[in-house]
Amino acid sequence: MRIGLLGKTTKLGGTSILTELSSALEAKGFEVSLFSAYSQIQAVDVVIVLGGDGALLHAATAAAPQGIAIVGVNYGHLGFLAEYEKQEVFKVVDLVASYASGACKILNRSMLQISVDNDTYYALNEVAIQRDYATGFLENPQILKLQVAAENGMVSIAGDGALLTTPTGSTAYSLSAGGAIIAPEVPVFMLTPICAFTMGARPMVFSDEEVFEFSVEKGRALVLVDGKAVATLTQKDSIRVAKAPFAARFITQNEKNFFNKVKNKLNG
User: Fold this and answer.
1) Which of 246, 249, 250 is nearest to 113 (CA)?
2) Which of 1, 47, 104, 247 could form a disulfide with 98 if both were Cys (CB 3.0 to 4.6 A apart)?
3) Where are the domains positioned within the chain?
4) For residues 72 and 49, is the Cβ–Cβ distance under 8 A?
5) Phi, psi dihedrals of residue 255, rounded to the nearest 5°
6) How far is residue 240's CA from residue 56's CA, in Å, rounded to a whole number?
7) What is residue 103's DSSP assignment?
């Protein structure tokens, strides 16, 4: 089995841990490739990411379309998506060996497919359509008005914008905006208003089979895909969001520890 190793040496304190981990994997009979950029993730069966949640988000976007499984070791701050903390880094060797023998679990995390004009983007956490704060007041009204259309009807949101989030993203930006926590295997998406101007605007949960169209009724908006700005929308512009045709495949030692992780990671 082919294993990819990805980690920024600035976060890891040098290359020694990558070298040691590579040797430990090779001793188990694995073919190992070292990656220094997300674009290099290819031609492997598993990619081990040493970094924070941001690194895992980027790695998932690169790996998921190719069916490459992912496992993370937390070298960042929160590490909510990681399977191990950095002091447990060598446990990943036995986990990968267990995966190779078919004896461990895969957690399939749904992703979003975002279509903007002729471009397509993928998100593991969320897509945000939020007020563009960079432009001046005269060009950018303080309230952004969005219309969200889906098979189940149409919703208008006035405020700073809205998020469409996956279960994975329910513990990220959406949680800070008042959204609910959703277990990662539940087949839903959640629409979360950002600083809504009306009392009646509340997070709403939809089947992940829904297709959404967001259009701007008033104001100027930025489209952010997992925190990265990819487009600007003005009045009457729209984007389409649906479930991606693939999932991010995370190797896990125990897929049932989600709420323990919520308790341990988010109560600090």
Assistant:
1) 246
2) 104
3) 2-103, 111-244
4) yes
5) -75, -5
6) 25
7) -
Run of H or E including 111? strand 105-116
CATH classification code of 111-244: 2.60.200.30
220 and 234 in contact (C-beta within 8 Å)? yes
- Residues carrying an active site annotation: 53
CA quadruple 146, 149, 150, 156: dihedral positive or negative? positive
Q: What CATH code would you report for 2-103?
A: 3.40.50.10330
Give the separation between CA 2 and CA 16, rounded to whole angstroms.
21
CA distance 130 to 127: 10
Enumerate residues 6+ apart whose C-beta is below 8 A from 233.
129, 216, 220, 221, 222, 223, 239
Distance in angstroms between the alpha carbons of the first and the last residue of the chain: 38
Side chain identity at 140, as an amino acid letter? N
| 78 three-state secondary structure | coil
The residue type of 123 is A
pTM of this prediction? 0.93
Q: In sequence order, what are the beta bridge partners of 150?
A: 153
Residue whose structure tokens are 């969320």: 126
- At 76-128, the pLDDT tens digits run 988 899 999 999 999 999 999 999 999 988 999 999 999 999 999 999 999 99
